[in-house]
Amino acid sequence: MKKFINAVDQVENQMIMGMCKAYPQYVKKLDCGNVVVRSNKKEGKVALISGGGSGHEPAHGGFVGEGMLDAAVAGAVFTSPTPDQVYEGIKAIATDAGVLMVIKNYTGDVMNFEMAGEMAEMEDIKVAKVVVNDDVAVDGSLYTVGRRGVAGTVFVHKIAGAKAETGASLEEVQATAQKVIDNVRTMGVAIRPCTVPAAGKPGFELGEDEMEVGIGIHGEPGTHKEPLRPVDEIVDHILDKILGDLDFSGSEVAVMVNSSGATPAMELFIVNNHVADVLAEKGIKVYKTFVGEFMTSLEMEGFSVTLLKLDDELKELLDAKADTIAFKA
Amino acid sequence: MKKFINAVDQVENQMIMGMCKAYPQYVKKLDCGNVVVRSNKKEGKVALISGGGSGHEPAHGGFVGEGMLDAAVAGAVFTSPTPDQVYEGIKAIATDAGVLMVIKNYTGDVMNFEMAGEMAEMEDIKVAKVVVNDDVAVDGSLYTVGRRGVAGTVFVHKIAGAKAETGASLEEVQATAQKVIDNVRTMGVAIRPCTVPAAGKPGFELGEDEMEVGIGIHGEPGTHKEPLRPVDEIVDHILDKILGDLDFSGSEVAVMVNSSGATPAMELFIVNNHVADVLAEKGIKVYKTFVGEFMTSLEMEGFSVTLLKLDDELKELLDAKADTIAFKA
After folding, report:
1. pLDDT tens digits, one per residue of A186-197
2. Which of A95, A102, B219, B261 could make an SS bond with A50 (beta carbons 3.0 to 4.6 A apart)?
3. Chain A nearest-CA residue for B209
4. B304 pairs with which residues across the strands?
């Protein structure tokens, strides 16, 4: 295993410290563990907390700041954060308006965030939650009942975060977050797996000409392997799955082409070249496109495409100001 | 060779088209070839052009926009753009205030930009140039007389671009760009090489426990190989070289921890954790830090550290507004 690290049991902590030392204007670390919160707490609005295992950077600490998250909780690599961690995060950011938990649909994440929410409610903190499940590739997995939450989660952070900044109530922010979830779909593929530091070996094996279709974001295998094809054909397959799952016809969409970590930006743009052409041909209007690293899986070489169906409210909130390490608008 | 592409001879063109389709609010492509310019030309200020081979994304198209570049020219992968390409770029962005060419120190780049500059001057366009040579690892290479220009170039784009927005003259913008060059130093290492699509095989080979020290950004080998060590020790070595090359004592610096393309953000933050500690210990004050992908080498797994010594002018220009695909301030 070749990695730029010091010790396997220090990767999460040294990452969070390195992030807070790089960007003190955005984030600070809680003393209790790997939880980052906004450097300047904002009162009088619903506070948003998200998180999950480490290894998805810039998610989730990279999205803490004005117009997005108020706290991000980082578990061990690809491992759910503990209820205590989430609870400390909630307590640190709680306002009178309440706290919305944005949870990706993994059994451990859902359980631990819910437990933390109950602990917070016992302290009279108002808590609500949404569960993101945008991955159209699989209906369930080793780690999930139902669909997995993947890159589409970033649109939930952005849009629900903007809604919260307007002074909306907890119920309203939750409803807007749920509207994003109802309208967002993602699918991904990979040509090189990643290695969890503590495991020391890749999460799956691939032959010289193979790709893994329907990957998640935790180094787990996808639905099946198939021969690597020209990327336009891969994009066609992904868009067929996404457009077959939700009716996007005649709508305006936000597009995200997300790197799994090691994919060169050159290839992401080549992906988007065809995504844009296919959508244009189908009469689906692209409102805004985001290409880059948003929800990664360490050094996995792969990509996902996310489509979010927009209405006027979602467009306005997508465009609203955001000022975080990894997402500025 | 596993890549998300369609055809080796289409990668540059499809990348540029994909970038322009993703971000029409920032960039548009010239009809003549792989040259991108600001979507909205800004008159009355010095225009900046940069570029080089493709494969360094988001450099250079990702830095075209308000407060940074006016044009970026993309040659074939790791290959200098032609004089004609650069000339078309200069013509498209030229204003009465003139054009500054920001060239990275590679023999082909310097020659072709200079030739383009001469062609433009014959059309009565005022042209000046700076040559960036921030890499402390080597004094020359297969591709270079003198030091190579690497990630520090992004600080030149940012700061000279901000200077141009103030309405400064061509000579003033050139002088500020040169001040950045005089005060910026970079060094990098890699643990996995990259494969140029047209070559089909990696630019160098590395054993299971080896790293390449002193890498450039064109897939070329560095100064030597050595066993992979804990990353704090690698950072110590890089900072020794940089701090031994220019006197940073008592100064304020901007730090850039740049991914070669495939390095997980987790590891970049672990790098920064130690960079910040070492600088603090040496009494060098960090003014601002940037961690991410700025000047890459396709899917190379490596990183570089850049230090820029700041004065009041450079701080103000570093903080000035920038609105591009890959750099916002």
Report:
1. 999 999 999 999
2. A102
3. A2
4. B188, B258
pLDDT of residue B142: 66
Pick out chain B residues at pLDDT < 50: none
Alpha helices in chain B (DSSP H): 11-22, 83-93, 107-121, 153-165, 170-182, 231-245, 265-281, 312-319
State which amino acid sits at residue B62.
G
Q: CB–CB of A199/A79 below 8 Å?
A: no
Helix, strand, or coil here: A190?
A: strand
Measure the CA–CA gap between A260 and B110, rounded to whole angstroms.
Answer: 35
pLDDT, position A248: 98
**Contacts with B232 (C-beta within 8 Å, 6 or more apart), sequence order:** A6, B274
**Residue B328's beta-bridge partner residues?**
B323
Res B222: pLDDT: 86
Q: Which helix (H) or strand (E) holds A56?
A: none
Taking only the tens place, the pLDDT of each residue in A142-198 is 667 789 999 999 999 999 999 999 999 999 999 999 999 999 999 999 999 999 999
Measured between CA atoms, the residue of chain A closest to residue B328 is A328
Residues A80-93: pLDDT tens digits?
999 999 999 999 99
CA separation for the pair B237, B219 (Å, rounded): 21
- The Cα B89–Cα B102 span in angstroms is 13
- Between CA B134 and CA B256 the distance in angstroms is 13
Q: Residue B149 in contact with residue B131, Cβ under 8 Å?
A: yes
DSSP string of B259-300, one letter each residue = E-BS--HHHHHHHHHHHHHHHHHTTPEEEEEEEE-SS--TTB
Please say whether the beta carbons of B87 and B50 come within 8 A. Answer: no
Contact: A2, B267; criterion CB under 8 Å: no
| A57/B298 CB distance under 8 A | no
pLDDT tier at A141, thresholds 50, 70, 90:
low
Task: Please give the single-letter amino acid code of residue B302.
Answer: G
Do the Cβ atoms of B108 and B52 come closer than 8 Å? no
B273, A14: Cβ pair inside 8 Å? yes
Minimal CA separation from A118 to chain B, in Å: 31
pLDDT in tens, A40-91: 999 999 999 999 999 999 999 999 999 999 999 999 999 999 999 999 999 9
Q: How confident is the model at residue A298 (pLDDT cuts 50, 70, 90)?
A: very high
ipTM of the complex: 0.97
Catalytic residues of B: 56, 218
Contacts of A215 (CB under 8 A, 6+ apart): A137, A188, A189, A190, A221, A222, A260, A297, A300, A302, A304
